[in-house]
Amino acid sequence: MSPRIERLESRTLLSGNGFEDDVSPLLGLLIAAPTGPPTLEVGPLPLPQISYDTPGGDCLAPMDATFLLEAEGGEDGVGALGANPFEPFTYETEPNGLPILHGYLAAPAAIYIDFDGDSTTGTVYAPYDIDGNPSMFNVTEQANIVECWRQVSAFFAMFDVDVTTNKSVVTVGDPLKKPTAWMVMSPDVSNGVSSVGAFPNTSSRSYGAGSYTTTRITVIPHEIGHNFGHWHTSEYNTLGVKTKEYSGQLDPLHGPIMGIDYVGVVQKWTRWHRSRNNLNEPDPRTIQDDLTVIANKLRAYGGGDDGYRPDDFGGTAGSIANATPLYVNGVTQAIVGIIERLTDVDTFSFVSTGGRYAIAAGRDFPSGVDLKLSMYDSNSVLIASEDGDPRAVPYTMVYDQFLTLDLAPGTYYATVESHGNYGDLGQYLLRVDPLPVGWSADDIGLTGVPGYSSHEAGTFTVAGSGNISGVADAYQYLYQTLKGDGSITVRVASLTNTDVAAKAGVMIRESLDVDSPMVNLYLRPGSGVYSYYRGMTGGNVASNGSDSSSSIQSPYWLQLTRSGDTFTTQYSSDGTSWATLGTRTVTMGETVYIGIATCSVNNKRLNTATYTDVSVTGDLNPEPTLNALAAPSDLTITGKTSSSV
Predict the structure, then answer these.
(1) What number of CA atoms fall less than 13 Å from residue 293's CA on the CB side?
(2) Cis amide prior to 46 (ω within 30 degrees)
(3) C-beta of residue 68 within 8 angstroms of C-beta of residue 604
(4) By Cβ atoms counted within 10 A, which residue in 86, 344, 460, 607 is the most buried?
(5) pTM greater than 0.70
(6) Between 2.60.120.380, 1.10.10.60, 3.20.20.70, 3.60.20.10, what CATH number should domain 311-435 receive?
(7) For residue range 334-384, what is the model confidence (pLDDT) as tens digits?
(8) Residue 513: CB partners within 8 Å, gap ≥ 6?
């Protein structure tokens, strides 16, 4: 069959439907013509075809972002992801330096990411290369491959499939050979292309530009989706006419893997309108269930009863039975888990020595899972839970769960579940960190990588992604409440160079809403001290002054003071002699939030900053005023009814 080539102009999508909506009830509204019932497609077209994703179109415009250089887990020298986030990650290499990596070695099927070139189809594809020596992989190329593989593994973590860089899975006669989707990353490919419904492959059938190994990693799940049988998810108007080949950002939070996969903060598999039906015609009645298409293919080749990965941890909703202890590293307790099915419940235990703890359950980036977190004491009594965020209006917050609890000494339990909407599956990180009394930690806004806060021996670690800018902030905030006047002083000891504009500093804001009035003061990775403010709810941030002197570098002292509606920013090299950056009048309520703020600007990385010598003054964490109304007096009962008490 001849390849079908689609050339697409640039498009922008506006839609009122979110990915978490079930589109089935809307179909009658969407399709005035043609008539007929909708069909749910959970398998490929009868014969493999070719999908070309052309540069300059919606689907494969490269992202202008760098990526996270880290990998978690590892065991016995094998490059494999593990549940222990503190375990050093190690891997073996081929003689040419190619990392040998497996996401789930025991799986009956594989996704092979081929970085060292291929010619099995008769076309020669050169290896991935950035240093002009394609015969060897240097340290940087190895790190790029490891991070690319780690992210792709997260997109497929819920499935019974091994994401690997090991050619053994496609080598005839090798004991590791198994049904495989084969993806080549090569400089000889300018964008992305794949056969549709070709799985399992005996030669390479999916291809991506070598540069996308770092700049567009989502090209791999997109093209592998085609390999398993997916077509694009598309947009149709109310007359049933296809208006967009690639469905786009249907809400500020999500991006569809089989549409414009790189938009949104969280990229997910979706259930949405397919670009064509089995007659190869656009048809809004044909709904593509991304997860079921992949799972059915894997099940047919030995992927268990349903194509999903076996459950990694035991647990039952509302119960502390079958709990797995968290791993311990210093003062932090944590574990990496997977929600394989919407019904999955994972139960964990951890030990409190008494005091305040920040408990965070978040996506293990770039996982798309939305979690529900519940906390129990040793008597199985529910003491706290979080499922979603009341500040979302909608999709202004990422649904990672953050709790701050004061706990007596003893053993406590956490259950982690799926929120329950479509695609709320995947890998997550649960961590428990101590905090001093009075402090609370949370992510504000659309953070790409969930943040965290911790305290040990006088040093605060506050790690955050996102950016404090525009009309909506995104960052990790470690804070207290302040009534009236007060100040915060910190020594910024260090921060990560995730971007030249990454921020580590202090902030006072009126509320925890993303668009709240605020004033901040911060350092950047290079040099200089800077301040922003937002003068009104929903307004843009504006500069509140800066000093770009090269001598101002971490470690450096910052101080932010409130007196009424006047905010003063100061900085110091020694914590004794202070220079004033400026003053700013911003109207805020009597009670505000005061604390430490960290963001990365690059929303795919964490800026991990450390702070010492932290001091906060003022009326902190005041108790709420209850029953403030005066009690009524001089009441006279004039009658009663049968329901009177």
Answers:
(1) 30
(2) no
(3) yes
(4) 607
(5) yes
(6) 2.60.120.380
(7) 999 999 999 999 999 999 999 999 999 999 999 999 999 999 999 999 999
(8) 391, 396, 537
